[in-house]
Specification:
The complex is a heterodimer. Chain A is of the alpha/beta class. Chain A folds into 2 domains: 213 residues, P-loop containing nucleotide triphosphate hydrolases (Rossmann fold, 3-Layer(aba) Sandwich), CATH 3.40.50; 66 residues, Alpha-Beta Plaits (2-Layer Sandwich). In chain A, 34% of the residues lie in helices and 27% in strands. In chain A, the strands form 3 sheets. Chain A has a 6-stranded mixed β-sheet, sandwiched between helices. Chain A has a 4-stranded antiparallel β-sheet with strand order 11-12-10-13, covered by helices on one side. Chain A has a 3-stranded antiparallel β-sheet with strand order 2-1-4, with helices on one face. In chain A, helix 2 packs across helix 3 and helix 2 packs parallel to helix 4. By secondary structure, chain B is α/β, with parallel strands linked by helices. In chain B, the strands form 2 sheets. A 4-stranded mixed β-sheet of chain B has the order 2-1-3-4, with helices on both faces. A two-stranded antiparallel sheet of chain B has the order 5-6. Chain B is elongated and about 95 Å long. Helices cover 66% and strands 6% of the residues of chain B. Chain B has 2 domains: 277 residues, no CATH class; 128 residues, D-Maltodextrin-Binding Protein, domain 2. The chains are: A alpha/beta, B alpha/beta. Chains A and B meet through strand 5 and helix 2 of A and helix 1 and helix 9 of B.
Chain lengths: 323, 436
């Protein structure tokens, strides 16, 4: 397929008090894993809802599969996992998935066999006749995910798919997503967890306060972020290294995690000198590696540490929507 | 709109499969059967009451009272089952002694059928004082005391008139009561329905509509709120239009309502058809059973009722769905649904008012008010069928009202189901309705 699967052109959406998305343009090429990144409240879900035709943009244009039709009329070609997960608690797992399939226009018989297939793949075969309310949260998430993709959509849109999953289930989900991309599907997912995105995405867009701040392939983004980054780890007393890291003639920026840190060298800074000083500090240097900037450090550099953390703790305001 | 059916199907299956549905569906007919059969069984088991007349009268009043008691039957038909077994004890001059010895035998359950149920004291004084004394175990039952009074009164009346010199033959003619047999005429034609039956039908239909709206309409509202709480709406709204979702829900719940009511109606019909057999089991004569007041529903009326039932259900369910979509918890809906509930209650009250004058000016006007017509029009039709053009006009106007309500409700619903946080104010809701 040529041309982007999802295209936003100068899309703006305002709610009562604030602008959720401002002049956002992006292209999601076919067959890629696309990350829509940003701190909480940045407008990721609003952007996704506009793609899904749940919200109508105030300005700009959304097009899917190169056409002008809204997401709902293409529902059978799209799998959507909303941020707000929801299942009927009293329904049996298999019946529920068949219902989801039918709302996408899949025949009950085909939905049934597809659902059974996915449940087996996600390790839920023993639970097909159990009620949703009898399942653990993690299992419910997997059922929801199965419901998102059982109609074999070309485009899969996942809003914060990893939130609430334990490491094992995260891994299962990650592998499934990569498999989907391998079979030619296009996957767009939003997250505020950069490590996850860094490992999976071919392409990322980072938005902050409704505006796009980074756009490109993972390689482009890292190259553009440039700078010389050094990953550090200490095994004795990291505090002794602090004065060295505060030296602005040497270090431009620190992403400090306590026992480890990622620093960006100052323009006139020199990695050899940094190494000397750190060894001399007696902090017990156990890692010193010149690296590409991590997505996390790019994210913090672009979004600002304050916005990245402050937004993560405040709850988002109530939303109004109309379709 | 095919997807609305998917939603309706899910809603229907999810409801019909619940224990509550099964219990309500089984329990109600059993209750209904009980209500219908119990009186028959109870009647069948009542034996004739044994009343001893303590006769201290000299002029033959005692005999007349005894005869009147013996003659009395349950159905009023001379060949029917006797109400009393009467015997008479002469007690001129020793009323107290006889009374006391007999009272000792009253209501002695260990004696079984040999026990006396009551003692009636008759003396000539009654002709002057208008007072009679009855001592019995069953004086607590007003209905039994009323029939006893009537029976004895007949004897006292006869005695008084005879003492005034009127012959017994003339007497029998004069005291006969009359009965008013009614037949309903509609549009110059006899309908074969009695006045009481039309009235009962109008009444029952409105109550059925009222109860169904309050039970099932509220279910539409509650389930809308539950879907918000479940957060399932966003998943669904990505594959179907909110209006399809609302329509599916109303159709699904509505089908459950119709199914349940049909089961009830079927059971009621079956019982009515089998009432002879049931009465037979209870040892009751078939004609007595046939006299039980169960009206037959004419086909025309049934159709009119069903049409308005469906219209009314759609109208109010859509309103309830809209209300539900603006709330976040079931508790909130109790306040928010007040206006809708008031409309339903006023529909019922207006119908009661119109029973007295089904063809008045007010009745004509109210048949054209969509929220009230589902109550008013079938009731009017039952009492006195409307001319066809007026009936069709009422249907058309109500249907337009339903469409208007569906439009407004749909606009509120599509915004409301994805709104969380504070309950929407009336001003916000008006804005949702206006928003393109």
């Amino acid at each position: 397929m040529s041309g982007p699967v999802v295209r936003l052109e100068h899309v703006t959406k305002r709610f009562a008090g604030h602008t959720a998305v401002h002049d956002l343009s992006l292209d999601v090429p076919a067959g890629t894993i696309f990350g829509l990144l940003g701190p909480n409240g940045a407008g990721k879900s609003t952007a996704i809802r506009m793609m899904m035709d749940i919200l109508v943009p105030d300005e700009g244009r959304v097009s899917l599969f190169g056409g002008g039709v809204g997401g709902r009329d293409l529902a059978h070609r799209i799998g959507y996992l909303p941020e707000e997960r929801g299942l009927y608690k009293k329904m049996k797992v298999l019946d529920h998935l068949v219902f989801f399939g039918e709302t996408k226009g899949v025949s009950p018989a085909r939905a049934r066999s597809k659902a059974a297939e996915w449940l087996a793949r996600l390790g839920l075969s023993d639970w097909t006749d159990k009620k949703i309310e009898d399942l653990s949260k993690g299992m419910q998430q997997k059922v929801q995910f199965a419901g998102t993709i059982l109609h074999d959509p070309e485009l899969v849109i996942l809003d914060e798919p990893f939130s609430g999953l334990d490491p094992v289930n995260s891994q299962v989900l990650k592998e499934t997503v990569i498999d989907l991309a391998r079979t030619g599907k296009t996957v767009l997912f939003s997250t505020h967890i950069m490590e996850q995105a860094e490992k999976m995405c071919d392409r990322v867009v980072i938005i902050s306060r409704g505006e796009k701040v980074v756009d490109g392939t993972m390689a482009e983004v890292k190259r553009e972020a440039g700078g010389r980054h050094v990953a550090l780890a200490f095994h004795r007393d990291a505090a002794r290294a602090a004065p060295v890291l505060r030296d602005r003639s040497l270090v431009a920026r620190v992403d400090d995690d306590g026992a480890s840190a990622e620093v960006e060298l100052a323009p006139e800074g020199d990695s050899d000198r940094l190494l000397e000083r750190l060894v001399a500090s007696g902090a017990g240097l156990s890692r010193f590696e010149i690296v590409e900037p991590s997505l996390q450090s790019i994210f913090i550099a672009k979004v600002g540490l304050e916005a990245a953390t402050a937004a993560a703790i405040t709850d988002r305001p109530g939303r109004t929507t109309h379709a | 709109m095919r997807k609305a059916w998917v939603v309706a199907k899910r809603e229907f299956v999810a409801r019909v499969k619940t224990k509550q549905f099964v219990i309500a569906t089984v329990f109600f007919p059993v209750l209904l059967a009980g209500v219908m059969v119990a009186p028959i069984l109870l009647q069948g088991n009542t034996r004739a009451k044994w009343i001893v007349v303590v006769d201290a009268a000299e002029g033959g009043l005692g005999e007349k009272v005894e005869a009147a008691l013996t003659r009395a039957t349950r159905s009023g038909n001379p060949d029917g089952e006797h109400r009393y077994v009467a015997s008479r004890v002469e007690a001129v001059g020793r009323l107290e002694q006889v009374r006391d010895s007999l009272v000792a035998l009253v209501d002695r359950r260990e004696l079984g059928d040999a026990g006396i149920d009551g003692v009636l004291l008759v003396s000539d004084e009654v002709l002057v004082t208008d007072t009679l004394h009855y001592l019995g175990g069953n004086v607590g039952s007003p209905s039994e005391m009323e029939t006893l009074t009537q029976t004895v009164q007949e004897a006292v009346l006869t005695e008084r008139l005879m003492q005034a010199g009127i012959s017994p033959a003339v007497l029998m003619q004069t005291v006969k009561p009359i009965e008013l047999v009614t037949a309903k005429v509609s549009q110059g034609r006899l309908t074969g329905q009695s006045g009481a039956a039309s009235f009962a039908l109008a009444y029952v239909m409105s109550i059925v509509l009222y109860v169904a709206l309050l039970i099932y309409g509220v279910q539409v509202m509650t389930s809308t709120v539950e879907e918000k709480t479940n957060r399932i709406n966003e998943v669904l709204v990505s594959s179907l239009r909110p209006f399809e979702l609302m329509l599916g829900k109303v159709l699904g719940v509505g089908s459950v309502a119709l199914l349940q009511l049909s089961i009830y109606a079927g059971v009621a019909y079956g019982l009515t058809q089998a009432r002879g057999a049931i009465a037979g089991l209870a040892g009751m004569s078939p004609e007595a059973a046939a006299a039980m007041p169960i009206p037959d529903i004419p086909l025309g009326l049934l159709i009119v009722f069903l049409v308005f039932f469906v219209l009314g259900f759609f109208f109010y369910s859509a309103a309830y769905a809209a209300v539900g979509s603006t709330c976040n918890t079931v508790q909130e809906t109790q306040m928010a649904s007040f206006p809708v509930t008031i409309l339903i209650v006023s529909g019922l009250f207006v119908m009661f008012k119109l029973l007295g004058e089904p063809n008045g000016q007010l009745a004509h006007v109210l048949s054209l008010v969509p929220p009230l017509a589902p109550f008013v029009t079938p009731a009017r039709y039952s009492l006195s069928p409307l001319p066809l053009p007026e009936l069709l006009l009422s249907v058309a106007v109500t249907a337009l009202g339903v469409l208007a309500m569906a439009w407004v409700a749909g606009r509120i619903y599509r915004v409301g189901i994805l709104m969380y946080g504070k309950r929407a104010t009336v001003r916000e809701i008006v804005r949702w309705i206006r928003a393109g």
